[in-house]
Amino acid sequence: MLCPACRDVLSGRPRVAWPTPVPDGLVTPWVAEAYDGAVRALVVGHKDRGQWGHRRVLGDLLAQAVHGAAAHLDPAVPLLLVPVPSRPGAGRRRGYEATEALVRRAASRVRRVRPTAVAPLLASRGAADQAGLGAGDRAANMAGSMHCPSAALARVGRRWSRAHVLVCDDVLTTGSTAREAQRALEAVGLPPVAVAAVAATPRRAGPGGQEFQTDR
């Protein structure tokens, strides 16, 4: 489903992508691509247009971001990948959980080199659509919007409670969603060591040369 020309522009090289401004306390965010061009079309197609097959390419890119985040971690300690949850009802409307599908694909790749599991620990209490919101409004919108149900925590078990926890998402924009996911996990004693995402929105130069993070 991806032409050779579009595939050739995918680098798959993980890099750190700090949003501007950086939310206080955000752990290091790793991505594989910029949210632009073919990558943007893939994400939108997978999330909003039912193009399920895109999960393979996007999941493989997410795996590269996970590899980058885990490069300096103890390889003997398992990785626990925690997907950012959809808003309530979004998965039912799509027929699948878009981000979790990417994370499961990524885990199948990362698992070839180190123990890795996927744990959908986070649940959303609901938040407004983030499109068009700036960094401050996004942070306010996401504050307190996620929690970890006790049943989900019980499924993690003793083995995975000692794992390196990574928050995983498709796109990193202002970092407010990732920071809220991090907060909810920290609240139950599972502090993430990093964030991994397929892509980050590009930075653009504003008046006076100041950089800012563009919206989705």
From TrEMBL:
Top-level division of the source organism's lineage:
Bacteria
Query: Which InterPro entries does its entry note?
Result: ComF/GntX_DNA_util-trans, PRTase-like, PRTase_dom
Which CDD domains does the record match to this protein? PRTases_typeI
Family classification: Belongs to the ComF/GntX family.
* Protein name, as recorded: ComF family protein
Taxonomic source organism: Nocardioides cavernae
